[in-house]
Design a protein that fits this description.
- This protein is globular.
- It is an alpha/beta fold and 444 residues long.
- The longest helix is centred in the first third of the chain and has 17 residues.
- It folds into 2 domains: 115 residues, Urease, subunit C, domain 1 (Roll); 285 residues, Metal-dependent hydrolases (TIM Barrel).
- The protein starts with a strand and ends in a 13-residue tail after the last helix.
- Helix 2 runs parallel beside helix 3 and helix 4 packs parallel to helix 5.
- Strands 1, 2, 3, 4, 5, 14, 15, 16 and 17 form a 9-stranded mixed sheet that branches.
- The protein binds zinc ion (ZN).
- Zinc ion binds next to loops.
């Protein structure tokens, strides 16, 4: 197996909850797809190493993990702005999504993967359509992904079978980088029977569920009014919470839902602060969930609502919004923010024993961040810089599964110019909105 050494970097460590440290002058030895050793620079003989990645002055971090996205939606970036949630769905996104072809999804995914690699994101839990094409794009890009083919109750249960076929075909593919889940859209777009069938498929395949639920307080309220249950109660009752589950948003989770989530087998909540700020909805109750031991992870959602797939921005907004909402600068301190970005996000995906730490035996999903830019100087506090100052362009080098995907800002697996060209071709066609031609109606 080929070996690589990341030479002379600083390593982010979180020795215990609430603590963060940077160990300077470290070498990371990678064998195949795993981290084999971390030693002080100079302690290893280099003549046996196949490749040296110089990293003096850089911080080595685990690759960032996006716990909920619809990456091909970069195709709709900027097309649904300054509108409330209902109009966002009914007048913009769902009409435009009726224009999508699987070829569009493929190139949209490639464009998104370029953006992700360029800002240090190595794993995404993605929830969209034509996911076999997204899987192909991920396979080529070299990143890691948890993929679920989105389905609506209105498509009928045959659609669930199709999504299950996809899940079966792609689970553990691309050298183990791709795993799959069943991805019913949400309790307000899928009836209970449909959700129960989704559970049956997931159980048969031994995989989990990725679903939007309690996306905002008004959804929870209308669920209580129309059926007397919160969306989280619906997840519990339909058996979803008996399986590993990624819940997108959960901004409408009520205090009485928390106990149900605690009883769940393995559940985590994806938090996408920029989307909530732009749509003017509530925030995920991060503190209450974490106090109850339920992991919360960072997310961007799709770029149609979030504008970018930049998780450093999500990290910064998450932290600042907690301080703002509680009017308390001691809320969500730097160490906790970094703990959510790595430990929290990987736990939401059930991958916390494989990625998210720079540790011997963990998968080599690593990024090198350059903190020498003017906006970090003088560098008194690298951990604070990582949360509050980093720009995507500070990410210099990205590895996933031991493979270099970008080095010194040069992409190694994707052809950016060609991808831009392909996406341009479909731009105008995708933006067309035909009244009443939409894939769904938002009416929770
Ligand atoms: Zn979403």
């Amino acid at each position: 197996m080929r070996t690589k050494i990341i030479q002379n970097c600083g390593i982010l460590r979180q020795p215990e909850a609430g603590k963060v440290a940077i160990d300077e002058g470290q070498d990371v030895l990678i064998r195949g797809n795993k981290i084999e050793q971390i030693v002080p620079t100079g302690a290893l003989a280099l003549d046996q190493v196949d490749e040296i990645i110089p990293a003096r002055g850089m911080i080595c971090l685990p690759g960032l993990v996006n716990t909920h996205a619809h990456i091909p939606m970069v195709l709709f970036r900027g097309l649904a702005e300054d509108v409330p949630v209902e109009r966002w769905f009914n007048d913009f996104i769902w009409p435009m999504e009726s224009n999508l072809t699987e070829e569009d999804v493929y190139w949209g995914a490639q464009l998104a993967l370029v953006e992700m690699i360029e800002c240090g994101v190595t794993t995404v839990a993605d929830h969209y359509f034509y996911m076999d094409r997204v899987a192909e794009a991920v396979e080529q890009a070299g990143t890691r992904a948890v993929l679920g083919w989105a389905s609506f109750g209105s498509q009928g249960e045959a659609m669930l079978e199709r999504t299950a076929e996809f899940a079966e075909k792609w689970h553990h593919q691309a050298n183990g980088r791709i795993t799959t889940v069943i991805a019913p859209h949400a309790p307000y777009t899928c009836d209970d029977g449909f959700l129960k069938t989704a559970v049956t498929h997931a159980k048969q395949l031994g995989i989990g569920i990725h679903i939007h639920a309690a996306e905002n307080v008004s959804q929870t309220r209308s669920s209580l009014e129309t059926r007397g249950q919160t969306p989280i109660q619906v997840l519990a009752e339909t058996g979803i919470l008996d399986l590993p589950t990624i819940i997108a948003h959960g901004c409408g989770i009520l205090p009485e839902d928390i106990q149900l989530l605690q009883q769940a087998k393995q559940v985590g909540v994806a938090h996408a602060p920029k989307t909530y700020l732009k749509l003017g909805v509530e925030l995920t109750p991060i503190a209450a969930l974490r106090e109850a031991g339920i992991p919360v992870g960072l997310a961007t959602d799709g770029a149609a609502s979030n504008s970018t797939l930049d998780l450093f921005e999500a990290l910064r907004l998450m932290t600042m919004m907690q301080k703002f909402v509680y009017q308390d600068p001691e809320q969500l301190p730097i160490a906790t923010a970094l703990e959510i970005a790595f430990g929290g996000s990987t736990a939401v995906l059930g991958l916390e024993k494989a990625i998210g730490q720079i540790k011997e035996g963990f998968l080599a999903d690593l990024i090198l961040v350059d903190l020498s830019g003017t906006h970090h100087q003088p560098l008194h506090n690298p951990a604070a810089s990582l949360v509050f100052n980093v720009q995507p362009t500070d990410v210099q080098t990205v590895l996933c599964n031991g493979q270099i995907l970008m080095q010194d800002r040069q992409l190694k697996t994707l052809d950016k110019a060609h991808i831009f060209q392909q996406v341009q071709k479909s731009m105008q066609r995708l933006a067309v909105r035909v009244p009443d031609k939409r894939i769904q109606l938002y009416n929770p």
